[in-house]
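Below: protein 1.
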Amino acid sequence: GTPVNGYPQFDRSKSLEERAVAGGGLMDQQYSSVYAQDELGFLNNKIRLTLAGRYTSLSMAAWGAAADKADHFTPRVGVSISLDKNTTAYALYDQTFLPQAGTVRQGTKIKPITGNNMEIGLKREWAEGRWVSSVAAYRIIKKNELTAGPTDPNTHVAYSIDLGEKRAQGVEFDLRGTIARGQNLVVNYAYTESKVTKINDGAVTDLKVGDYLPAYATHTANAWLSYRASSGVLRGFGVNAGVTFLGDRHMNWAFSPAGGASLPDYTKVDAGISYDRDKIRLTANVFNVLDTYLYSGSWYSYTNAYYYQAEAPRNLRLSVAYKF
């Protein structure tokens, strides 16, 4: 039926910009950036040093207010060392840059959200390159994220302030290679810890220092096995199967990040077959083979609540491709 407040009326004689101004204000973002990178080699290129940086100039306006401007430099430094012909160690530091908008007190500058990433790792080839493994440890520090602050008693305006600091860290492992001719395996695992490490004075939030952040799993594991025949009457025929596991998911149901029950562990199995010959490729995939009731969720700041979304039960997808 007809919406309670009627159908919207669009004056198409005016530009989108004019209509935005009439509707409460223009939302606008413009930026320009310069990026430079160089790689230096030492000791016959056994040691490689990467130096890079990006300078970004940003202008952002919301609801017709004067544009907030930010200039930010994000560096990147990496070193890679060949320990032998099959083994490489590396270390990396880089920074991300994300603009944000909010209502802050006059004279307070809105800083962009920054993520400082530090990572070390080791990569190695085995069995004459048929297997490749890697292990890495990382730490990401997130700063300058705006959150609700105290309300001004005179103007009754709720200003935003810097929340504090969040930290994500963990270890990741990856292994991939060939078991036998045409048979390949990929396995990976990640251990993740994501916490609040600092809350600034005046921040209005249910989070406390030491709280886990919502919407992530402590343990994530994947395995995928595939086989494709390369000769004989089955040449071009392939079969594959895989499993995904999420354990100790930090995701609560209550209206506060501090309460509620976390999501249960998640296990999903997928499988498929394919036939690839000359210009034709046929693929049939079955998702959620075990027909398990699976759901995932996230924190929705607009309503200050969590939401969840159920995934599809067992389902099949068939595709046909032809190359001209």
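Below: protein 2.
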Amino acid sequence: MLAKEDIGIDDELARLPLRELGAGFDLLAGTRVLDLTTSIAGPYATMLLADMGAEVIKIERPGAGDDTRSWGPPFLHGESLWYLSVNRNKRSVTLDMLSEPGRRVFDDLLEKSDVVILNQPPKTAKKLGLDAASLRARKPDIVYVSITGFGLEGARADWTCYDLIAEGYSGIMDLTGDQDSSAQKIGAPAADMLAGQDAAFGTVAALFDRLRTGRGHVVEVSLVESMTRFLACRIVPFLGSGVPITRSGGKDSVIAIYQTFETADEPMTLALGNDAIWSRFWRALGRPDMIDNPDYATNEGRRAHRERLVEEIQRILIEKPRSHWLQFLASIRVPAGPINSVDQVVRDEALLERGLFYRLRGEHEVPQVGTGIRMDGRSNGPRLAPPRLGADTDAVLGDILGYRDEEISRLRDQAAI
């Protein structure tokens, strides 16, 4: 029976394309990753690695597991949908890292792994014996990946951090929203997702170098730095010009016409991003005067007259509905688009055809957002559903470590697993 929080499941889940579990990308096959992370950034990083074929073993606390397992509602089949969003293609092992027998199991797994990823502040990691120096002493060629709020060194190194805090530090909140509004958080955990991508990218780079040199590496990613790097195209112009950067509600850019506009019914986006697109736009509208006017010949000139140009374009677009303009602009190769809500995005036929949204069949059917990367003309496929807490403990200890059934039973009696 579905919980009350499982609202809309019949409509929203059933209409998604069904993907059976099977073979996915195998570019990282043979790489084993120990995932000690929780929440979003770390699990997203390890899911990206798993999507590319790595074997990811998710180490979780007995009885509790990843923090996101309790993030809800909404829940689906008793699992948090936040958890389900970033944990496919992994196996879950419950392990009490604070117990002596549990730590021995971890050390055995470490010996047979290539990568360990954690998101503990450095002081906590050192207290648990999970700092880079401790783990590399046991396995010198391990790729050690740390995801923290502020990095492994410096005055802020041991401060706790979440996506919200990182967004505030980075400057992105100050640039998000209308000019007269207060600062706003981005509508998704952007710092977490960017840091996760950075961690996955750094891991692959470190593994590539290890193939050449045999050396392990310490990969260090911080939420604040990943989020701040995202602002490079706003920060560098400020540093080079001294001109303050302010929020404008998406109605200003270095490109003169690059914003939202109203139509006869729904708003849309329009980007006249270069001189050729500018000319195509006005030629198709039968307005050669806008092309021939020397004041508008370059982006610099258009920026100088931006207010007048925006007013003229708005006067034209308001006369017809958005669907007309999107079809018309696509036909003349002028970038434009809708402003979709989430329920509209997941119904986008082009994205569905490319395999970005689907439901996978495991113990239960669960919705997923795909890798978003195609290889050799095909989208990725899921190998494993997001695991139930501890679902793979016995199999991992038996298959990888060769533990006998009685050894596993003893560990369970000791509450180590």
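Confidence is low (pLDDT under 50) at residues 1-7.
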